[in-house]
């Protein structure tokens, strides 16, 4: 237990350092960027005095260092500032867009894990057969296909040609849909949610699925070649028990690590996938803010995603240590 | 820098592995396409003509129809042919531009960005990694914490943010094949998207740096390095003469694999409308999206070329890894 606490404390300090770095970096982005927010906010025919006044209101006339300290203090208190464009609190807009992206990322992650790990084990167990070579080919395609193009091709074949699934949008969130089901016994919300989720989930999850498949297959193959497996098999341990108890458990470490590392990648990838499916999420919000140089919004998203990544990584190390006693928490 | 043993094992792997050979051929053909685009493209990729727009690829149907048009001040009935033909083997887009030519020119942008971004990443990443691993101590701590910060951002978000900071800076350089008079009727300049290249490098170098650092740590305690130090060789010279040559193989293997990521990031950026040039695969895929119901080939063709290129790179990467086995992990997007 003491071990666990020291681990968490040490990693938290490192994590806080990285998050501070993230905040500083995004602050610098805004400072370096040539756009003048006051100019953006002011009407086109605004007098120089008015622009000057807005600059002062935004605190842009203060020395950079003071601005920096104010920004960091604000972020620590959960105040990410106000959008240049809509003048609404950034945090509120982000929290509004977050469920869309999270649902998509988690669904993609689940899809990838559920498909790839059994397929990887299967492929390794029947190495060299048709099943193995087919899965390998599919996974090569998966890591080589840009997610936005896969998305468009799926829309082309499934939605346009056969009219099966909706091409875009997110009319209802998971929370709302569940509410409908529980309180009114209405399945419509949930089925609409599922229908709109399928294509974006596959588009976002495929690359990741292919990557995990390769890792699982290689890990299992490597583990199966080890001597203790031979010994256990010689002892007469049933094959399924051998697979799940020993081989899989020991080959999961890299899989868990990459899963954690790729969560950030999933959020990044969802920027493009969201754009294809007109999906209201962080990615859409980010692109829209980028097009109008709305820096507070972009800064907020970057900080949130960065901090999320740091947290996931700590969690991943922790899970790995629990899964594999050889991994030291120290 | 590449030892005989490396060369032999590469040759052996190439001979025994037919799939890898296919990968190398795919990649090489893309590079040839990029280099000689003006000669290989059957038409000017920017040449518009609305009378022949939305022609499907050859053998994929199409129709002939009679329309009235104003020509030279009088109204005439003309037959507009929309039948796919060998003149435009992969069809034409909504402005009547030749899809095959555009795709060939798109290879240029992808390959150009991929190689230049990788070059920048290699120089920066290797230098930082070598210094970090060789010197260790505080230098190492500071540099690696910096790497951690860069890694905390998803690659695509950070490249987009950098485009927001620096704007879209592009440099047009004269196309040597056209300027020298070898080919005519093709665009005279090729666009180098500087911001995109640098923005992508700013996320890729960290992966290189991490591997380079690991290799430098392994090499610095080898006897030949200690011997060189005892003889009074300067640290920089030791890194250059001894540590780097002994670390270069895994770095180059990782670099190969990462070129695939760069191509995907580049096409994603152009897809989102931040291409800097409109002769790029991502740009054409985005443009074709509006005509998905009627002209399926517009988005399909450039995407297939991306997949083929990236498959080629991945196969080459697998080949290098199997042949040289430096035991590295694949970095993600």
From TrEMBL, chain A:
GO terms for cellular component: plasma membrane. Pfam families: BPD_transp_1, BPD_transp_1_N. The keyword Transmembrane helix applies. The chain crosses the membrane at residues 12-32, 104-126, 147-165, 193-213, 252-277, 297-316. Belongs to the binding-protein-dependent transport system permease family. Keywords: Cell membrane, Membrane, Transmembrane, Transmembrane helix, Transport. This is ABC transporter permease. GO terms for molecular function: dipeptide transmembrane transporter activity. It is a multi-pass membrane protein. It comes from the Archaea. It is found in: Cell membrane. CDD domains: TM_PBP2. Residues 98-320 form the ABC transmembrane type-1 domain.
UniProtKB/TrEMBL annotation, chain B:
Pfam families: BPD_transp_1, OppC_N. Keywords: Cell membrane, Membrane, Transmembrane, Transmembrane helix, Transport. It comes from the Archaea. Belongs to the binding-protein-dependent transport system permease family. The chain crosses the membrane at residues 20-41, 111-134, 146-169, 189-208, 251-274, 294-316. This is ABC transporter permease. Residues 43-63 are annotated as: Disordered. Its main location: membrane. It is found in: Cell membrane. CDD domains: TM_PBP2. SUPFAM superfamilies: MetI-like (SSF161098). PANTHER family: D,D-DIPEPTIDE TRANSPORT SYSTEM PERMEASE PROTEIN DDPC-RELATED, OLIGOPEPTIDE TRANSPORT SYSTEM PERMEASE PROTEIN APPC. InterPro entries: BP-dependent_transpt_permease, MetI-like, MetI-like_sf, OppC_N. It comes from Natronoglomus mannanivorans. Residues 107-317 form the ABC transmembrane type-1 domain.
